[in-house]
Amino acid sequence: MKIPLLICAVVLTHCLAWGDDESTNSFYARFNQKMAEYEVKIRASVFNKQAFADPASFQFTSPQDDSGPDYWSVDIGVTANLVKMFASDLSDRLYLGPSIEYHRLTSTNKPQDNLQIGLNSLYQFGYADQFPYAHIVQFLPTYKNDWKGNGEGFFARLEYLPVIPALATGGFIRGPDWFLYEWQPTLGVQLETADKVGTPKRTGDEARFKASAQAALYPFGGKEQLNRRLQVIVAYTYWRAFNQSGGFEDLRRDNCLFKVGANFYLDSEKHVAIGVDYTDGANIEAGKPKQRLVTAAFKLIY
Amino acid sequence: MTIKHAKRKRPSVRRLPRSTAPPQVLATALESGPSRDEIKPQVLAILNAVARPASRPVADEGKNLTDDHGITDTAKENLAPSFSRISRDKYHGLPVSRADSKACKLVGDSITLVWKRANNDATWKPK
Q: Which residues have a Cβ under 8 Å from the Cβ of A2 and sit 6 or more positions away?
């Protein structure tokens, strides 16, 4: 127990030092520059590029009332943009690159071990500054292996996201200085296949609709001293299966996930944060079973 | 009797990369390209259309795009086609990539980026 705490303390100390003195810290500046140059992104989930970045998180929990053994969790995804290498003419509208995402929870109650490797592609139609504004389509084909859940399979997502600055979507912040906000609606269809699903375990596939809305709020975000360092994210996602076969017929047709969390960024570049999240529901995209929990975590975002 | 066919030599076409073009050609291109003052109002018009209403008009080049005008990194990426409309479509220069657009921190960075790309300069990067 003492060793993880010690590691966390050392990491946090370094982060605070970075945050305080980043302009003169050449290592931090060079690291950020390289990450930006190759457009490397580190987040909890990288497959929805336009969603508000949920930072990658690392947690260690040690129950003190003998309710179970220690457990740890990690939610991390990494992606990089390769479009410049073969289609630089489209580099203003296209994002194309490999992505990998891993979610692990060692808790004996609801363990999770989910890996996804695939392609992250995004194309923007239209212009954000002119009517009828910009419209983004994402196509995300992935191989997935859910060792604690549905097993191996193919998972493809096709999503649509509107970018309308006047409505505060697409990353354009609105609101007065004391309460800034942005939000992003998403509509999509998904196809998932798996080889160990249902009871008894068998193969199957499922096609479903997805609708989600995420909002990011920045209380007192316009103030100089607290310039968007405090971020509150509220997200609701709903999935509705319209075609199920094989083992998927044993599963629910409707799933929803509600999440609300607060992050406080330790550095002004907003790469390192500590945060608390409340989650209620199943995240079927990340292979997380239905659960209701509060977590506090050390978070990293690029 | 055997006829030996002489191997046909392919005409060698040597493509010169942009950077190896003679300096006088580059200089001519830069001279004929738009000036920064010509680009500036066009970029400001784009930023003005998307900035937080409370922070308009966008005029100060030293202002931060995110903290002062509410244009986050995702939004900056989504502005890349709008910037390319100026640099590539209007002045026949290079497109502004999503990554470069995102790397701009200040209003002035966006203006310089579009100006450089409009003049076919792919080397300049926002700091």
A: none
Report yes or no for ipTM above 0.85: no
The model carries a pTM of 0.80
Q: Which residues of A touch B (CB under 8 A)?
A: 36-37, 39, 50, 81, 83-84, 88-93, 95, 124, 126-130, 134, 136, 163, 165, 170-177, 180, 182, 227-228
Taking the Cβ of residue B26 and every Cβ of chain A, the question of whether any pair is shorter than 8 Å is answered with no
Determine which of B65, B83, B97 to mutate to test the interface with A (most A C-beta atoms within 10 Å): B97
Mutate to test the interface with B, among A82, A91, A92, A217 (most CBs of B within 10 A): A92
Measure A171 CA to nearest chain B CA, in Å.
4
DSSP symbol at A59: E
pLDDT per position as a tens digit, A103-152: 888 876 778 888 999 998 999 999 999 988 999 999 999 999 988 888 89
Measured CA distances, A289 to A78, A140, A261, A281, A282 (Å):
23, 22, 19, 8, 5
Place of tokens 């490397």: A40
Give long-range contacts, CB 8 A cutoff, 24+ apart: B87-93: B87/B114, B87/B117, B87/B118, B88/A92, B88/B117, B88/B118, B90/B42, B90/B118, B91/B33, B91/B34, B91/B118, B91/B119, B93/B33, B93/B117, B93/B118, B93/B119, B93/B120
